[in-house]
# Entry
Amino acid sequence: MFEIVDRDGLGRLGRLATRHGSVQTPALLPVINPNNVLIPPREMADRFGAEIVITNAYILRRTKSAGGSVEGDVHNRLAFEGPIMTDSGAFQQHVYGDVDVTNGEIVRYQASIGSDLVTMLDVFSEPSHSRAEASAGVDETLRRAKEAAAIKEEVGPDPFALVGVVQGGVHAPERTRCAQEISKLGVDVAAIGGVVPLMESYRFRDLVQVVIASRQGLSPHLPVHLFGAGHPMLFALACLLGCDLFDSASYAKYARAGRMMFVDGTWRASELEHRICECAACAKRTPAELAGDERAIAEHNLAVSFAEIGRVRQAIKTGDLWELVERRCRAHPALLDGLKELRRHASWLESFEPLSRHSALFYTGSETVYRPILHRLRTRLQERYSPPRRKVLVMFPEGEKPYMARQAAAMEKVERVCNAHFLVKSAFGPVPIELDEMYPISQSLVPDQLDLEVLEASEVFARQFLAGAGYEFGILWEGDATLEELSKWREEPTPIDWILQRVRATADMQFGRGAADALLAGKVDLVRSKNTGRVRNVLVDCRHILSMRAHDGFFSLRAEGGKALHRAFAKPALRVVVDPETAEFNRAGKNVFAKFVLAADANLRPMDEVLVVDPDDALVAVGQCLLGPEEMAAFDRGLAVRVREGLPP
Amino acid sequence: MFEIVDRDGLGRLGRLATRHGSVQTPALLPVINPNNVLIPPREMADRFGAEIVITNAYILRRTKSAGGSVEGDVHNRLAFEGPIMTDSGAFQQHVYGDVDVTNGEIVRYQASIGSDLVTMLDVFSEPSHSRAEASAGVDETLRRAKEAAAIKEEVGPDPFALVGVVQGGVHAPERTRCAQEISKLGVDVAAIGGVVPLMESYRFRDLVQVVIASRQGLSPHLPVHLFGAGHPMLFALACLLGCDLFDSASYAKYARAGRMMFVDGTWRASELEHRICECAACAKRTPAELAGDERAIAEHNLAVSFAEIGRVRQAIKTGDLWELVERRCRAHPALLDGLKELRRHASWLESFEPLSRHSALFYTGSETVYRPILHRLRTRLQERYSPPRRKVLVMFPEGEKPYMARQAAAMEKVERVCNAHFLVKSAFGPVPIELDEMYPISQSLVPDQLDLEVLEASEVFARQFLAGAGYEFGILWEGDATLEELSKWREEPTPIDWILQRVRATADMQFGRGAADALLAGKVDLVRSKNTGRVRNVLVDCRHILSMRAHDGFFSLRAEGGKALHRAFAKPALRVVVDPETAEFNRAGKNVFAKFVLAADANLRPMDEVLVVDPDDALVAVGQCLLGPEEMAAFDRGLAVRVREGLPP
# Structure
């Protein structure tokens, strides 16, 4: 019932199907209080773009409708034809004491009123709970989740969608365990619960840890709801961590208290002397008029919240969600702590990072250098890159891009004297000069003045790299040394073909160490752009094996190249294994759907070039995967691999 | 014709009087193209809050009105009764070549059509101009400014306001010279010109340097217009540097190109797939509808621009303009370079910094520690603070606030063994523990995880401080050492009265070294809050000399305290010298208006407690100054000192 339409790392644009229509994600679900409908759901849809709302089944069950009944379809009671999610009252039970309803009762009640997304009654764990308390809560939550799943089975065909809840307090292993177990039951949506106390006390670093621990246990095919996260300053960060759904009672609660929500914080309307917002509610009123108007403030809060959801969606589409998050997290030092926590998870986050993006990478502060895509760059340099054997290594400082073109004169000067290789000690780590057009090196912008932290990190990265890179160099030279210094390394010139070196290095970085040797075994012809001189196509023994993409400097794989990689790399490397029954379609050039993917190399990344094989490891096609390996295996909907060339049997 | 209503550093809320009414600043002046009125000025006022517009006199002069004439009142021609500024065509002359009009002609023309703000025809300096070229341009610009001022004199009573232009290219000394000379002529507004090429090429670091160099030469009583700065991503930064007026042709030019302006950058409307804005124009349309609608995009651009002006105004009011600027400058690495440039000017910026603010200081990144108010903290610690004489200095790491309350147990443990003083090595620099409630120490929030840059800077600040502080300490101890280590410094306990020490240290930090000795000479009684235990009033020999403010930990000065400071500190220290003819009103407790200020101590800062004296240095009152010393002397309007107590003769 959920499919990924587009993605930026863990952040995803999705489509969630319900019995009352489908919902774009990330989505914000305004909370409708059936006792006090401030803004009717229909109006929320028309004016703010709400596609789905949420209401509380526990309150509904105690509240007679106009017809005097607590029964009847929830869509009629809320006068809304779109999807409706219902909550179980677990939070109320936790905050206000015993709620006189069982899990079975409230799940059945939600089913009876036609809720589209039915939430189980989970056990709320406080951040103060010990591991043992949290663990007991998880056990009971899982027992109830099973019970709820069984009730869903009873309903038969076209049942409601079941929302399972991940609890576990601030104990990461409990969160992960709960998430893993929930993923095995018949739930359709995973909700991360028990986080309101963390948000209320601005413990955003703990929030990040909790969301990551939960997400690490969840199957990627489940849409993730972050319970109670109704403040727009959190949406971007939460989406970056893979959350898809948010509920907001805040728009109304804040309005009742005269408080206006913004992406960079909260203002008491009565404190404002100037109009600080462009929304329709603010544009029509003076700040003083606004301060006394609960409904207008609620409209403001909704307008800001839905616009932020739109910005997050657009950022996922554009590929600059990290930039948005890094900006948003400057709103409060506690959010900055949340952002800084991400670097500790760079390795895990990297596994969801696409090969490249269409938008440039912007440096926004010292946190940027720890982004997962830069972590990958440094890791692959150590694991996949082999420098050419030269006596001298010349290091250039960070500078204008593309590096090779800018440093051409300096390189030529050195190469007249001795045989050298060239590295740029960039803000993001050491960059062999022949990789300067590979994403995100050329496609990034850094300020002229770098943070000390970044300079030191760059130094550390360079040292780590040099220690493992196996250079036989004698000296490091930072660009301004005299030729006398270099001349002691004078030797017979054996010039490097930098264009070929770029092709070789890129192939190894993209596909793995050894890919260049495998792909380029034979007579290599490089077809270059007449305008830019950049490599466009790579032919080996007159066969077109690779095309180099202008926008990111990576290769598109052709069938002939795929054959070479398939011979050189043992399974499961680079492979997506598909159902043998559908393989013939892929051989004919048809795309691979996630439903038919049996397995995929765990080292693949979204947007990677892949080998599509059948279970016998026969190569059936080459193409580009749109999902990560875990996702390809887990999803039943959506495209997994866009096939470029099929290989007829 | 300009007065300051409120301020945050160089940023100011002002009121600019014109013949067609007064204008709140910071203000945005939408450019009206008389040949192509996309949105009529009247509508801009009603819908977006525009109070003033700008149009181009050079174009008006070539464009016949509906009546077939180029003469007639500009207010009629634009159908706008509010203030109208006219531009001279200098930019057109520069971009499109020779404009066939002289400075005298265009100034007289603007006067003839009833323009409220008449702009001289300056000579546009390109960033590529050499110092000599820029200097020649400045000479000619100044000659024309004198000519324009003479024309203004001819007009007689109730003349137009004259806009003088600061040129000088990227050469700071030329900018400053031009600004100084312009300030001496009869101009009413200073415009910083020649900056569009810097903005177009994202040279924001150069822009910051140019604005600062210009502002350093300008008299503070002149409102400052930044020519061509129409992108909302720049407003906050420009206001922080003392700009008050902006013109925007961008709202229309961008709209024509299908481009939408946001505070964090620019989007091509056609590239948007999601609704990313809350403004009325965006709320009513799908992104696709918007993309084809130039007028709607222009409305969007205006809504966003005016809302940002409102946010800047509110930030000045609230005292968090620095936080806003630090957030805004994350939108692009080139803006971050502009922000990072500010630390080089911390010492100059500090002279405009108020003593304290009402809002807490938020750490947003490594740039924060270089804010002028923190520069002041470190400077005053070196210049004004005298630590108590103790053998041992104990250093605590950054931690929870207020430091003294949090470290009470650790302090007590140490004090049982030896006589020690205590410092916190905070993110912002070393903090003697008795100053922990002084703004912004307790009134600041930093993340738990500090940037390496900040940690290193903190170390450097601490070392600088310790080198000059004259401690007779033997060891530094970071909080966890054993008592054995301390016991070698064991001596007869001479406990510090930390409450009195707080009063002494605060007095010296606030008024200057020696203030504590001067103020506390006699029998000291401290009146403390029953609830918090914090000092409220300081009495010496039964006379109330100081009150300590809860919100910022600084003192309010009473008349008796003023007398003591007046005796101890020779003029001009702490003094505001007023006209003898109005001094009697101040003696009676009336406030001091800027018009009657003759001079003020250059070391005073906005919100400082001051001694109001007559030219014979007789003390007439004590109070709080609302302006800086240069401003008090330069302004003819507005309040300079809020008198707390007058001293009857």
